[in-house]
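Model it.
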Amino acid sequence: MGVGMGVVMMMVGMVICLATVAHAAQGTATYYGPPYLPSACYGNQDKGVMIAAASDAIGGKATCGRNYKVTCTGRTNQGVLHPCTGKSVVVTIVDYCPPGCRGTIDLSQDAFAIIADRNAGKVNIEYTQ
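Modeled.
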């Protein structure tokens, strides 16, 4: 009975790990500069500078208020060979990046500078909610 319970616990652990990994997504990040107000989600309410605009690729306006952990994973162009800082940032979605948006998530320039060299302009990312 002890061996059977161990197998069950191991299987449950594997399912939890797979569910956690399944929530990580990949995309691209760009950035925009101030002023950050008004925003599509909060009007003139100041939400600080660790903010972002969501494209339709992640739900657009429906993602207002959600927090995302964003990590740079690499370059998208030849301009900056090693743009990533190795850091992650948590941002709150406060705005909408309309159709034609160049990135999956359009970060504030302050948030982008934490994860990447701003000279890159656009980087590959991994993000989780």
